Structure formats: C-alpha cells, structure tokens
Amino acid sequence: MLHKLFMYESIAMFPILATAAEDNALVPVEAYASLPQIEDPEISPNGVNIAVKRVYAGTHTLFLYIQGHNQPFAYSSGDESDINWFRWASDDRLLLGMGFPKKVAHWRGYYTRTIAMDPDGTNIIGLRENQTWHRSWSGGRILSLLPDDPEHILMEIRGVAKRVNIL
User: Fold this and answer.
1) Cα 71 to Cα 120: distance, rounded to the nearest angstrom
2) pTM (two decimals)
C-alpha cells in the first residue's frame, strides 16, 4: 500500500518538475543581495502576540503585533545600535539584547546590553546587577527564564550567575 502511494505521489509531481524545467528564467542578483524583510518572528507564550525584527528607515526595529491593537508597536534601536536578539520572557515581558560600538579612552569596542520591556514598548529597564555594571563590555547572557518565577531571570554577568528582576 505504501509503495503504491509513493508511486502515485511521484507521478503526480512530474507536471511540476516539467514546468520548473521549462521555466529557466534567470533570477536577478538583487533577489540574493537584498536584506530580509523580517527576521526571527517569535510568538508570545500564550500564542496571541508576535514580535518580529525588521530594518526600517535604515535602523533595526522591533515590531510588536499585540492582540486588540490595530497598529503594531515599533521599538527602534537608534542610529548606532543594533537589536541583536529578542525573546519573550512571559506574555507581558519581552527581553532584548542591544549592541552598540563605543570608544572609551583609547579602547574601541562593541558594548552589549540586555533590556526588558512591556509588549507595548513601555516600562523599559536595563537589566544590571548594580551601578558598576556599566563598565562591562558584555550585557550578560540569559541562562534561564525561571518559569516558576516570572519576575526574574537567571543571567550570567561577568562569569557569575545572577537572579535578575525583569519588572
């Protein structure tokens, strides 16, 4: 039975393959060189909201499509910074990894920071352990979302695991 099914599917594909072989139009190089229109779409844990990264007006922008709102909320990273990644921490909180080039004294490097915000782009906070963290090049790395503790995440900051408040 399985053999017959495979045979029928194979025969059914011949017209498609023949059409593709006849249609030998060259694809323009611009199709390969253009930036993607969207990157990394991610659905909130409850399956209702969507976050997606786009390059809009020359900057990295996070678009948040929230149920009950006609227009998406847009969060721009600014002219010289990047939205490197984003992740839903809960239905009500989104985490973003930001990066930006910076020169300090005679050192030039790429700083990263992790921030938390509400899906409508409000209540933005930088996730750091204390005021001295601003001297660190790295914005930390998320180790766990701590599903039993929705107000905190576990981050690695300067090689040490820290429980960080995201509210």
Assistant:
1) 11
2) 0.72
C-alpha–C-alpha distance, residues 87 and 41, integer Å: 10
- How many residues does the structure list for the chain? 167
Q: Rg of the chain's alpha carbons, rounded to an integer?
A: 22
| Chunked mean pLDDT (size 10), the chain, 167 residues | 38 45 72 76 94 84 90 82 90 90 82 89 79 59 91 86 89
Q: 60: which strand partners?
A: 55
Task: List residues bridging with 53 in a β-sheet.
Answer: 39, 62
Given a contact cutoff of 8 angstroms between Cβ atoms, the answer to whether 51 and 39 are in contact is: no
Instruction: Give per-residue burial for 12-36: e unless 16+ CB within 10 Å, then b.
Output: eeeeeeeeeeeeeeeeeeeeeeeee
Assign 20 to helix, strand or coil. Answer: helix
CB contact at 8 A, 116 and 124: yes
Please list, in sequence order, all residues whose beta carbon lies within 8 angstroms of the beta carbon of residue 72, skipping any fewer than 6 positions away. 63, 64, 65, 66
| Domains of the chain in sequence order | 37-165 (2.40.128)
